[in-house]
Prior knowledge:
By secondary structure, the chain is an alpha+beta fold. It is built from 11 helices and 14 strands.
Amino acid sequence: MIKVERGSPLTLELQATIDGLLSVLSLGQGEQALSDSTFANLFLFRAVHRYRFLGGNWPCISGRSYDGLTHLLPLFDLRTAPPEVLFDLLYGYGGFFPLSGFQLEGLDPQRFRWTASRDDADYVYPAHQFVNYRGRLLQKKRNLVKQLHSAHVVTAQLFTVEAMDEALNVLKQWMHAKGKSTGQADDNACRDALKHSSTLGLEGFVYRVNNEAVGFLLFEMLKPGVCVIRFAKALDRFKGIYQHMFQHLCHARQEIQWLNFEQDMGIANLRHTKLSYQPAWLLPKYRVYLR
């Protein structure tokens, strides 16, 4: 028997509808806003997580987490739905995910239970840490930036379609250096982000060393003053380039007060790197189940 999937694929035509619903749910969250809860993120990783839009009176996004949980991201306040509606929605799914701590407020623990996985948590940093990398714990970052600038001329340019080929070349070299084939890692999502950056509300910079494009950064403003780094790709042979890119962003966009580096997915090297920048906190993402 052929399984018929519920809902419809995520397309750019759904952007206004989905972002409108998500913005209502995240009102007042500020730097506590989850990195997942924008249309741009859902669209870019639609294939990896099998995201689909389920419309109607109780709209949701269906998907599959990195560790295999089939879930629904509710685009409505769970507290407003009758129990029978929630049971019907969850038929065939493991739970609701990801939800912020704000969305748990007022949930009846007699009706719901919730958990959070360390692998899902977002890393959140005050932007001022990247401006000068002050303090003993960030001394290595500071020294790497100094070494980069002492050995090379480093420049930055706003990412536009004119810089597309350079960014794609950096991505290709990054993939090769990591031993990844086309389509592995976040290759497809990153290509889509570069292609649809303007439509998705992504901004960024291309970085050059001695006039050679060696890195790029794409980010999204989650909330006023709150920025999520969607993609940061650079050539490792230029030591200090990543530290420089983050520092430059915070200098160039002084309205940014907080940086969200997303989750580490339980990948040891990624976790080590993100912890090395000394996050202010890890922002949990909750999985909510009906009792």
